[in-house]
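Following the same procedure, backbone shapes were mapped to integers, yielding the entry below.
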Amino acid sequence: MSLELLLKATLVYVDRSFVPVDANHNIKKMLRILKNKSPKKTAVSIPEYFYFEDRYQSVSRYPKEPKGLVIPVSFLTDLDEAFVTLMSLVPFQFNSMLVSTLSGRADYKRKLALLKFRNRKMNNLRKHLQPWIRRR
């Protein structure tokens, strides 16, 4: 869900004519729009298992037996990669919990530990958000 919402926010930023409701939950369609409408013709890589036949989206949101969901070992790495890539496309993070977490304040230590856990994209995330982190 977070990737879908971040993708919609990115599209609103890149293409003022984009209507999030019209896109529904179609991540594949939104990725295509982003590639076509982005000034840099940005192709964001989100692994297909996140949106293939809407299986992950529907089963993770509305679980029911006997449908199950296989989560690959690369899930967190793939999620971190897609999240940081989308975050780096849009400069709207200046007053967010993410910036507060990365600032290292004592009241955000637990959140920072969770965010850092096996996150190979922390350096990229810090680099992108550094201007906002310094202001705090």
Summary: The chain has a mean pLDDT of 83. The longest helix spans residues 122-135. The CA atoms of residues 18 and 59 lie 27 Å apart. The chain has eight helices and no strands.
